[in-house]
Amino acid sequence: MLKLEFKDRRQPGVWLVESVFTIGSGTRNHLVIDDDSVEEAHAEVRLVDGQLYLKDLGSFKGTFVEGQKVVDNFQLRSGDIISIGRVELEISDPKTRPATQGAAKAKSDWSLTAIGGDMQGRTIMIHGSMTFGRSSNCDIIIEGEYMSRRHAELSLKGGGLRIVDLGSSNGTCVNGKKVNEHQLKPGDKISFDKEVFLVAGPVAAATNFMDDEEEATMFRAVAPMPKAPPPKIQPVAPAPAQQAEDNVSAASAGSNSGKGGMIATGVIVVAIVAVVGYLVVAGS
Asked: What is the pLDDT of residues 196-240, one digit of tens each?
């Protein structure tokens, strides 16, 4: 059994046990909300086979669930936030409250924002698995001539968001192309009939969940390879035996040269002496 409570706790909550539970500012409603943004007969909740369905009663400002405008038979679940004018109501399950009391509702990293069609300007937070279509049993009801009763499904898995077409008559498009199943990334555009939604999500998903056909091969510019300098020719040191032989040869050559010089000097001296002696004899 679920309960309808005011988020600001302005009034006590009420149990949703009636087959038809009316909400409005009029005194005949099951839940009377004294607020000038709420009409006399604003909305009603019906209990059918244990399931709750919300319906707007033609109010001027409308009725919304998680930012989604409600027209007829919107299925309610525990944790849903209903906006009636400026007043926010929450569907709660007291059985689960002890485990979650004081804990904030998990924030979704993924959302859809309507950028075209009748829902333009609305933002839908994605939690778990959500279906789109004309059926009142869908999570997001889209009334459109080309919408199927159960048109498509969005599901979160492993931190990524995936969309699957549920065999719709007119198909589901992502970035202008019909898809049967597609891994979504932030910035993608989903279109059903006239409704166009922009996908928002974590930045990392833009690369972690990129489709193969959209992956671009990255090329790094190649710098010209510098030319290698010419090799330096190192003088080869002579082998020890060769070095010794060269030294002996050099010494021998030096010694022979010295002896030759001494002999030449002696010959010159003898010649001079002979000439001097000849001149002395001749003078006598």
From this structure: 999 998 865 555 544 444 443 333 344 444 555 666 655 555 555
Q: Which helix (H) or strand (E) holds 121?
A: none
With a CB cutoff of 8 Å and minimum separation 6, the contacts of 166 are 131, 133, 148, 150, 151, 152, 153
- Give the position of tokens 């009377």: 32
| Per-residue pLDDT, 102 | 40
- pTM for the structure as a whole: 0.41
For residue 267, the 8-state DSSP code is H
Query: For 206, phi and psi rounded to 5 degrees?
Result: -65, -25
* 39 contact partners, CB below 8 Å, separation of at least 6: 24, 25, 57, 59, 60, 61, 85
Q: What is the mean pLDDT of residues 36-52?
A: 92
What burial letters (b/e) apply to 12-42, b meaning 16+ CB within 10 Å? eebebeeeebbbbbeeebbbebeeeebbebb
Among 101, 98, 107, 87, which residue's Cα sits nearest to residue 5? Answer: 87
Residues 6+ apart with CB under 8 A from 116: 191, 194, 195, 196
Q: pLDDT digit string (tens) for 59-115?
A: 988 999 988 888 888 888 888 999 998 899 999 886 665 443 444 445 568 999 999
Could you report the per-residue pLDDT of 136-155, keeping only the tens digit for each?
A: 778 888 888 888 888 999 98
What pLDDT, on a 0 to 100 scale, did the predictor assign at position 236?
54
Helix (H) or strand (E) holding 157: strand 152-157
**Paired residues of 65 in beta bridges:** 68, 82
How far is CA 160 from its chain centroid? 10
CA nearest to 154, candidates 123, 176, 125, 177:
125
